[in-house]
Known about the structure:
Number of strands of chain A: 5
Number of strands of chain B: 30
Shape of chain B: globular
Largest interface: A-B, 58 and 61 residues
CATH topology of the largest domain in chain B: Aldehyde Oxidoreductase, domain 4
Strand content of chain A: 15-25%
Structural class of chain A: alpha+beta
Shape of chain A: globular
Radius of gyration of chain B: 27 Å
Structural class of chain B: alpha+beta
CATH class of the largest domain in chain B: Alpha Beta
CATH topology of the largest domain in chain A: Ubiquitin-like (UB roll)
Largest sheet of chain A: 5 strands, mixed
Oligomer: heterodimer
Number of domains of chain A: 2
CATH architecture of the largest domain in chain A: Roll
Number of helices of chain A: 6
Number of helices of chain B: 19
Helix content of chain A: 25-40%
Strand order of the largest sheet of chain A: 2-1-5-3-4
Radius of gyration of chain A: 16 Å
Distance between the termini of chain A: 51 Å
Amino acid sequence: MAQFNFTLNGKPQRVDVPADMPLLWVLRDTLSMTGTKFGCGMALCGSCTVHVEGEATRSCITTMADVAGKRVTTIEGLSANGLNAIQQAWIDEEVPQCGYCQTGMIMTASALLAAKKNPTDADIDEALGDHICRCGTYPRIRRAVHLAAKAAAAKPARGSAAGGER
Amino acid sequence: MSAILNVTRRDFIKTGSAAGAGLVLGFYVPSRNGTAAATPAAFEPNVFLRIDTTGQVTLIAPRPEMGQGVRTSLPMLVAEELECDWTKIRVEQAIADKKYGDQSVGGSGTVRESWMPLRKAGAAAREMLIAAAAARWAVKPDECRAESSFVHHTASKRKLSFAELAEAAGKLAVPKEPKLKEPSQFRLLGQRVHRVDTPAKVKGAAEFGIDVRVPGMKYAALARCPVFGGTLASFDAAKAKAIPGVRDAVRIGDSVAVIADNTWAAFQGRDALEVQWNEGPNAKLTSAAIHEQFVADAAKGGVVWRNDGDVDAALKAAPKQLNTVYEFPFLSHAPMEPMNCTAHVKADGVEVWVPTQVPQDIQEAVAKAAGVDESKVRVNITYLGGGFGRRLQDDYAIEAALVSKAIGEPVKVMWTREDDTQHDYYRPASYHALSAAIGADGAPAAFRHVVAGPSIIRQLYGGAPDGLDAALVNQTPYCYATPNVKLAYAMSNTAIPVGWWRAVYSTHCAHATECFVDEMAHAASKDPYEFRRNLLAGDGTVASGRAKISVARLRAVLELAATKAGWGTPLPKGQARGIACNPAFSSFAATVAEVSIADGEVRVHRIVCAIDCGMIVNPDTVEAQVEGSVVYALSAALKQTIAIEGGRVMQSNFHDFPMLRIHEMPKVEVHIVKSNEAPSGSGEPGVGPVGPAVVNAIFALTGKRIRRMPIAPEDLA
């Protein structure tokens, strides 16, 4: 066991866990933040995606030692009220079915949109090609990413607003 | 059939708020088979509709939400007839209780079975609210109407809110036969209504089974014998217990549970266990041996369930005869949320928190495991991170109950992806021997289909005493006009556990049929679409077990898919189309696939689906279900197999049991037939035709007929 300090969703956080404990289980079991999901444990599905220093990162293979001193953002800290442009687009396009993989999808989409304001289909494939949705929501995810990009472009001052057209 | 009771003053109804109870109705949703549970000796209402004195409408939903949208579609049924403001309705998940009737979600049945009872409940409440208003105004009820949570007296332009009327309405008798709206009057049904569960799901706030936390809870991972049917010989937990956070290791039947302070420690401890297994009688079982068994059993002919004319004579007499074999592997469900269950076995009862498709089976199984009466088991139903039929089993809940009982503490049993892949109840593997005779006129003179493979009903429940699995029979219809037809099933069970995998037998039986019919069309030198269409003439029905299939409705989806896909119109060079159709779960589906081959791999460009599932509650949900069916079916056709060596599953995680991903996703179009028929299934019927449409397209493109799934690179070379 060892003590680690890091920044979680903008706030300082200290945990006392084994250095090789994956961030996923620190978040879920130690800190009770369960929006980040376990799907495969091998970075194959993307359900566990969080941001580390703004980069989409698989928390199931990222150890606590890896993120010591770093900024970590989870789905719980992605937006103030759970409704930024991406989350609103996910609602507008009615993306989730079971919804289990979607927080990971949203975290990766969010990192993509931070890097590319107007991603192409190829950009979306590149960013989300390593995620799995067993319910098969891929076409809606694609539409929602485009919608979120459009909404952010239309109303740059209000990050949580999104257009409603389909 | 669906009696509705006014249960406003029953003491077990708790409003949970300061608002007055207002009007509370109990009503009854019949079980799937309309049997025992539909006629209880003493009527117990099973779903509760509550309108409190603030106007809040609450529906207690007995069935779990696994992504199929029932938490939205069921209240839509009530709201439509109630004429309440949609934004004022709320759905609460019920716990498991026999009084609710059948609470299971599977077989694409929830809307089908809830359609009339929930509408009647809404209509009864509406009539009671109108009666209360009419009494207050001293006018006739038929001078009043309900709209958007108000009752209006049209002539005097007076109105009263549901909130104001709820208490008075709660004192009235329930109308026996409330008048239902005509479909032409629907305001809500058939509209694209946003799902009520989506906001929580995009925030990470929706509680799945894996997210449950109980004070003092421990975490457990189990070591299970990798060989099916093996038993535990011995184990040494010294190394496991040396891992920080591991508390103990206990024997649970033929498994070993590692108990820890967190999931990670439990997983590590489980990996560090030293276990000796008695691998048992299946230690040498292989996929190849299972194949040989299927071949031998198919050769015996099986049990015949349909025998029109004289197939054998017709096969001999016809100028052109086709004989071939189609083969399918075992498949895993692989929902994104691995199996898990949290249980607390206490002296005075048991509480479990579980993502399940069968709350009442869980209640029964956990009671048995814990050695208590079912009434002492409280089953809390969480969201399901996918079901697809895997969560129709109770194995993981029994484990949790046994572990909690053994350690005397609340515990969450958590499976890894490897556990999930290697200890599933798999889609049965199967072997299909098909024969057909084509007459001189190009029409089929005979069709014979012998299915060999495991029976889900026999292996899971010991059923099918006559050798015919009723589910297989229902899902293996042959609808094309042919004078001589023989359909048979050669039950061929194995040690590999089998279960209900999305769309079940239609995923291989329909696939084999629809590919073979394509072969017949080509042998007859006919266009595969026109060939099918001509053989689906008229408006008769075809029976296959309980299933009674309208040929006209099947033809209509076939025509719709072909028309929307532009069947017969030119495609870019290097692309071709294939078509297939299938009736399943009382619905009808057809698919046109457009494919090409690049770098030795199949590329699916476009999938056009047509579905007739009767009247539509929420078209967006139906489209989502069919889109999902396409992905499920393409993953199976292009990528997936569960192989057996040494009595165990060789695959373990998403690298060797892969799924379709976003960059492989074709354009999917879903076309819904407008219908006034009763609603039928939408979650599964779309699966069956996708695989054969792709295989038929590959044949159209390359002349290569692929008869073994999944499609392998060598099939295309």
